[in-house]
Amino acid sequence: MTAAAFRFFVRGEFSVPPLLPETTLSLSHRGDATCRVSTTVFACGLFVSALLLLAPGRTLAQVDTLRASTLDTTLALPRVTVTARAASVTPAEAPARLTRIGPQALQASGVQNVGRLLAERSGAFVKSYGGGQLATLSMRGAGAAQTLVQLNGHAITSPQLGQLDLSLLPTSLLRAMEVRPGGGSALHGAGALGGVVNLCTQRPGKRAAATVTGEYGAFGKRTGRLALTGSAAGVGGLVVGEYATTNGDYPYLDESHFPSQTVRRRNADRTRRSLFGAFDVRAAEPVQLQVGGWYQRTERGLPPIGSARARQWDRHLRLWADATWPRSWGALHLGGLVQRTALRHAQQGLDQTGRTLTATLRGSADIALAPRWRLRSGLESSFSRARHPQLAGDARRGHASLFARATGRYGAVRLFPALRLDGYAETRNPTRLAVSPQLGLNWQLISALHLKARAGQAFRMPTFNDRYWQPGGNPDLRPERSWNAEAGLFAGDARRHAEVTVYARRARDKIVWRDTGGYWSPINVGRTRALGLEASLESRWALGPLAGRGGLFYTLTDARNRAAPNASTYNEQLRYVPRHKLKSHLTVGLSPAALDLDARYVGRRYVTSDGGSSLNPYLVAGAQLRLAWQMQGARFRLAGRLNNALGTRYEVLDNRPMPPRHAQVRLSISTGP
C-alpha cells in the first residue's frame, strides 16, 4: 500500500488560510477504497494553480529584459538567495514572526545546549527536568510533540516519541538558529502545530584553522573540544570533536522531609561524546554541495523520585546532504537525511533498548513565473521505523508529499501562499491524506513599518508509541489538527527593531493518554484553544569605543482545555503553560572585554489539569565576562559565567529542582585566520 501526497507550497513564510477542509483516504486491507474529498479542495487548488502555474513563465534573462524596457512602471523582484536551505527572507520581510539567533548571540549566551539557549533567547518555554536532564519545547501553548525540530531544514524529531531532548544538542556545533512560532505544516509538514525550530550547523572555513576549547565548572563539569577546518582541491572541511561530563550533584531543598532539609542530587551524572563533520564541495561548478555527519553518544543517570533509580544511554547518528544547481530560470535543490537512534533504559532489573530509523529525500525547483512571482515546488518522501520490546512488532511508516509555495510582490505588498498535501501509509492502518494550506501577507506601510498576517492549518501524525505501545496503544488514532491565525507589526531595521504579534489557535483531536483501569491508553478527545501576545525589542548601539546590544521578549499565553464542558478541567489553563514570560539580555563591549547579562521571569505553571495545584513564578539571572586577545599568532578567548546569579530556588517542573548559584570558566585558543 503506498501513500501519495500532494503539497502545494508558496515561497515564503506565510500561509494560505485554512480554506481547505481535512481530506482523508481510507483503504481497507481488502483493497476497498472510501474517499472523502471536499469540492473546496479542488476549487482552492484550481484557483492557486491558475494564479501561479498558468501565469506566463519567463526566464530570469527575460525578466531582466522586461524590467529594462518598462518606462512608466518599476517592477521590483523579491530578492532571491540560492541556497540549500529553505529560509530566504529577513524577519522584517517575513509574513510571520521569525527569530534568528546568530553567532554573536550564541557567544554572548555562554550556554552549552539548545534547551538552555531557547529558554533564554526565544519566546518559547522549555520544560526542563533539571540540570543535565530531559528538556523539551513548548511554543504558543503546544506540547513538545507538537513542535518540529529541524537540522539544516531536515526534520529530526523522533518518530517513536514525537519529541526531541534539547539538552542533548550542543550549541558548539551551531552557527545560528531560527525560531518560527505558529502552525507551519504548509511549509514544513507534520508536527509543526506550535512552531518550528531550525538548527543551522557550522560551515567549513576557506583556510586552515584550529580551535581548542576547555571548560571547567561546578558540580564536576568538564568539557574539551577540538575544531579543525580548512580547504583543499575545491573541498572545504570542518571536523569537531567534543567530550563533556558532569556529576550533576548540586544541592537542593528537599521538602518531602519534615522538617525540610538540604540534600544533594544522586545518580545525576552525565557524559557526552560528539563527533561532527561538514564538507562543502566546490569542484563541480556550478553545483553547490554540502555534506555533513554527526555522531553522539550520551550516558546519564536519572535522579530518583522516591527510591527508583535508572540509567539511560542515547546514541544518535545523522548523515545529510544538500545540493543546488543554479539554472537560467532559477535553481534546482536536492537534499536528504538519514537518522539512526538508540535509547537504552535500565531500571530495577528492566533493561530495554528502542531503536529508530528515519530517511528523508526532498527535491524542489525555484522558478521565476512572472516579474512579480517566484515559486518553489517539489516532492518529499520519507520512511520511518521503530523497534522496541513494547511495540507491537516493527512499526513502519511511509510518507510522500507534494508541495508548492510562492512569493508575489505588488508594490509594498508581498503575498506568501502555500499549499501542501501529505500522505501516510502504515502497517495495519489506513492510508491518510492531510491538506495544509496557508496564506501570508507582509505590507510595508512605510519604510520601517511592516504589517504582517498569516492564517493556515497544521497537523500532527500519532507517534509509534501512540499507536503500537503494549499495553495501551491505539492504532485507530486520528491525526491532530489545528487552525492558526496571527497578525502583527514590525517596526525598525537590522540595527534596532520592535515587533508585536497577536495569535489564535484552535486544535482538535488532541491525543490524550488516560488511565483505563490497569494501564494507560491514548484517545482523540482533546480540544484546546490558545490566544496570546508576543512583544519583542532588539537594539544595537555604539558610543565611541563602547558598543552594546540588548533585547526584551514578553509573551502572554492563554491556552485552555475545551474538551469536556462538564468536566472540572474545562476552560482551565493547560498544564505547564505559563501565562506570562519576560526575558531580557544585554551585552556591553569595550575592547578587549565584553559583559553579558541575562534574566528571565516565568509565571505560574499549573501542575494539575483542573488548576488545583501550581508552581510559583521564578526569576533567574546570569552574568558573563569575556576577554579576547592575540599573542604570537594565536587568538585567546577567556569567559567566566555566573549562572543563577540571584540564587533563586525554583523548579520548572514539579519535583525537579534546578541548580543553585554556580560558576564556570571557558578558555579557547585559535590559530589560523
Write up this protein.
With 673 residues, this protein is mostly beta strands. 7% of the residues lie in helices and 55% in strands. It has six helices and 35 strands. The strands form six sheets. The protein has a 22-stranded antiparallel barrel. The chain is globular, with a radius of gyration of 25 Å. Mean pLDDT is 86; it is low at 1-87.
What's the structural blueprint in terms of helices and strands?
Blueprint: E1 24-27, E2 33-36, H1 39-52, H2 60-69, E3 99-101, H3 103-109, H4 114-121, E4 125-128, E5 135-138, E6 147-151, E7 154-155, E8 174-181, H5 185-188, E9 195-201, E10 209-217, E11 221-232, E12 235-246, E13 251-254, E14 261-264, E15 270-281, E16 288-302, E17 310-327, E18 330-347, E19 350-370, E20 373-387, E21 395-410, E22 413-426, E23 429-446, E24 449-460, H6 464-468, E25 480-492, E26 496-515, E27 520-543, E28 546-561, E29 580-590, E30 593-602, E31 605-606, E32 614-615, E33 618-631, E34 634-643, E35 662-671
Parallel strand pairs: 6-9
Antiparallel strand pairs: 1-2, 3-8, 4-5, 6-7, 8-9, 10-11, 10-35, 11-12, 12-15, 13-14, 15-16, 16-17, 17-18, 18-19, 19-20, 20-21, 21-22, 22-23, 23-24, 24-25, 25-26, 26-27, 27-28, 28-29, 29-30, 30-33, 31-32, 33-34, 34-35
